[in-house]
Every structure is written in C-alpha cells, then in structure tokens.
Amino acid sequence: MTVAESLQALREKIESRNPAEPEFQQAVNLVLDNLGPVVTRHPEYADAKLLERICEPERQIIFRVPWVDDAGEVHINRGFRVEFNSALGPYKGGLRFHPSVGLGVVKFLGFEQIFKNSLTGLPIGGGKGGSDFDPKGKSDAEIMFFCQSFMTELYRHIGEYTDVPAGDIGVGTREIGFLFGQYKRITNRYESGALTGKGLVWGGARVRTEATGYGTAYFVEEMLAANGSGLDGRQVIVSGSGNVAIYAIKKVQALGGRVVACSDSSGYVFDRAGIDVELLRQVKEVERGGIAVYAERRGAVASYAPGKPVWEVPCEVALPCATQNELDTSAAKQLIESGVIAVAEGANMPCTPEAVRLLRDAGVLFGPGKAANAGGVATSALEMQQNASRDSWTFEYSEQRLREIMRDIHASCFETAGKYGRPGDYALGANVAGFCRVADAMLALGVI
C-alpha cells in the first residue's frame, strides 16, 4: 500500500469511528493532508502506527453536571474532558462553556491542542474540555454553583502532573476562581499548578490574559517580516471582540497597525479613527454588552453593521479571532479582492479548508491557529513553571518570554516548510513540526 493509500484508509477509518463529528474529522484531515512527505521520510512512524495512535484520544470523559438556578430550578448539563496525548507532558488545554460544546467539538479542540502545545517547545501534552452550559445571562451565583458541580466530578481526573485545564470561550478568571476554589475544597491541597488562568493574587501569571491576542499579533508580525514587510501603517480587521480579539487589537496597534473593524455575533463595527481598545474592553468585558453599544458610545467616527460579516471591510491583514469555521470561501474571496496580504488565526480553526486553499493559491500569507494562537497555552505553561517554583515574574519579563516563544514557533514553521519543499506554507510547517516532536516522543516511550 502506498503512503497516499494508507492515509486515505486512515481517513476513512476515522470517519467511520467518529460519525457526526465534522469538526474533529476536519481537524484530522488538515493534519493528515501534510503528513505524506513525513511518512515517506520516516517509515518508522508508519510501522509504529503513530498516525493512527495520535488520532485516538488516550481518554474521553463525559459526565453530568446538575446545578440549581436562582429560582431553585434544577438543570442538567453535560461535561467533557478529552485527554488526547501525554507524550510530551501532562495534558494541557482549556475548558469551554458554550451551547455548541459536544464531544466532536472537544475532540477537535483537543487534537489541535496536541500540535499547538508541541510547537511551543514546552513539556505539555494536549487535551480539552468543557460543557454545553451557557454562562450568558446567568448570575454570578448560578455560574458559581455550576462551576462547583462541574469540578466535583472533574477534580478526580486532573492535577499538576496529570491534566491541567485552563480557560477558553465562556471561562475566564471568574470561572477559574470558582473551579479552583472547589478543587482546593475537595482535595484539601493548594495545588495551584492544577489550573491555569488564575487571578494574580492567587497564583496567576502576568500576561496570561493578554497572551493569545498578543501572540497572534507577534506571529503575524514575524510572517510579514520574513517577507520583507511589517505591520506599520497596515489596515487590519479582527473578527470577534472577546479576550483574544481585544488584546490582538491592542498589540497590533502598538506594533503600528491600524485596526478599523471588529465584530460579535450580532454584526460588526467599523471605526475609521481606529478601534478604541479601552472603550471596547469596557463594553465587552466589564459591562458584558454588545458591539452595538461600542458604536453608540464612540460617536460619529464609528458605524454599526448588524448581521453583516466583518470580512466585507477592505483590509491588508485579517485576524479571525472568534470561533471555528467563521471564515468561509465567500469571506476569503472578499478578502482577496480587497487586497489582503496576510491572515492569521487567533481562534481555533476559524478558516474552512476551502478558504485556506483560496488564500494560499492567491499568495496570501496564512498563519494557522495551532501556531498563531499558541501564545495563550505557552503562557499557561509559564504559569505552571512559576507555580512549581513559588515564583512570580514581572509583566515585562513574562511578555519577553512570550515574544521569544512566538518568534521560535514562527522560525520552526518557516524552516520546516522550506525543508519539505513548500517555502512560506505555514500550515504545512506547523503541522509537520508539531507532529514530528510528538511522534519522536511517542517512539521513545514505546507502544502505550
């Protein structure tokens, strides 16, 4: 059987074993599409069935989460934790609280996390978790009760040497606090390395809040620099207006870019004077309002486009920072026609495979999420390091470490793409570089 035939057989096997999980199948195919040359060079990977093994989670945990709302009504949600691969270290990956969460979504996120964590060069494996619980519109008390119930089951599966969750969509410092409080209460241990994304006064790390957005900005800066350009003076658009988007906007502007549009689920705002980050943060993070409120407060320089995609705004750089598959072929065509030169994924798999192909065929620089948004998990690993040594680093030193890691990730992707005859193909570079480090560790550990 040829390499191509064996890869196709594996795709078919994964589809049959994981029905009704399109996000997971998509994530797997995006990696397998790039691994043919790797298997040809390293037949030992095929002999040890590494591709098949890496596509199967080491452990999948599903549990019920009962909780009581402020009116005394009992609700039942479903909790998940997929511990995908621990060849490089303890499982590491966020918890997502959102109605869209199901096993397929968590598996896709956990699979991506394996390679993202590998690219950081830090000793962390890949995992992911969450619940179909929706924190929107819930009181602090309701969120606390849910988090306590969620951790009452999850605690037995995690720990600083086993599995270290963090935050993701719907899970910020507030939720991590409630989760960690319950973990400490049940275990009777102040095991601060068991969760990351904690508050600064109780074991958190500086720059962790900003890390994913900052890291995405640093990665796109490196991509442009490798092509003799930069962010200075570039018109930039960002999808989303949550944590990742806010801090991507802030750092892009600090690096000389001009962010003129961002969005949420209701539409987008165009600000011809450039997005006011502090006003955006006040509206979205403090008041938990919609993007329309930003436009109202900003005045005549801003306009709100309800129900419209942000991709219709002309730009040179686009940063999708919202959710999976938000940038499709139609959006890619709009971006190409407007003269976009670079797209970097701040979210996990926000571009459809067809959109990625269109962008690459048009010569647009494309930074895949597993590389471009790895700054968040990298800084989480640095938080674990500080927890282990009972230390706390300054903001400046922490940001310096983040920037060094993102520079190294870019270099690894860039050099690997060139080594495999595809210079400038960051998707191939990220997938191959991430896979090879995990594969070598799996070989060293034997069949487990």
Automatic annotation (TrEMBL):
<dbReference type="InterPro" id="IPR036291">
    <property type="entry name" value="NAD(P)-bd_dom_sf"/>
</dbReference>
<dbReference type="InterPro" id="IPR050724">
    <property type="entry name" value="Glu_Leu_Phe_Val_DH"/>
</dbReference>
<comment type="subunit">
    <text>Homohexamer.</text>
</comment>
<keyword id="KW-0560">Oxidoreductase</keyword>
<feature type="domain" description="Glutamate/phenylalanine/leucine/valine/L-tryptophan dehydrogenase C-terminal">
    <location>
        <begin position="205"/>
        <end position="446"/>
    </location>
</feature>
<dbReference type="InterPro" id="IPR033922">
    <property type="entry name" value="NAD_bind_Glu_DH"/>
</dbReference>
<dbReference type="InterPro" id="IPR006097">
    <property type="entry name" value="Glu/Leu/Phe/Val/Trp_DH_dimer"/>
</dbReference>
<comment type="function">
    <text>Catalyzes the reversible oxidative deamination of glutamate to alpha-ketoglutarate and ammonia.</text>
</comment>
<dbReference type="InterPro" id="IPR046346">
    <property type="entry name" value="Aminoacid_DH-like_N_sf"/>
</dbReference>
<comment type="similarity">
    <text>Belongs to the Glu/Leu/Phe/Val dehydrogenases family.</text>
</comment>
<dbReference type="InterPro" id="IPR014362">
    <property type="entry name" value="Glu_DH"/>
</dbReference>
<dbReference type="Pfam" id="PF00208">
    <property type="entry name" value="ELFV_dehydrog"/>
</dbReference>
<dbReference type="GO" id="GO:0004354">
    <property type="term" value="F:glutamate dehydrogenase (NADP+) activity"/>
</dbReference>
<dbReference type="InterPro" id="IPR006095">
    <property type="entry name" value="Glu/Leu/Phe/Val/Trp_DH"/>
</dbReference>
<dbReference type="InterPro" id="IPR033524">
    <property type="entry name" value="Glu/Leu/Phe/Val_DH_AS"/>
</dbReference>
<dbReference type="Pfam" id="PF02812">
    <property type="entry name" value="ELFV_dehydrog_N"/>
</dbReference>
<protein>
    <recommendedName>
        <fullName>Glutamate dehydrogenase</fullName>
    </recommendedName>
</protein>
<dbReference type="InterPro" id="IPR006096">
    <property type="entry name" value="Glu/Leu/Phe/Val/Trp_DH_C"/>
</dbReference>
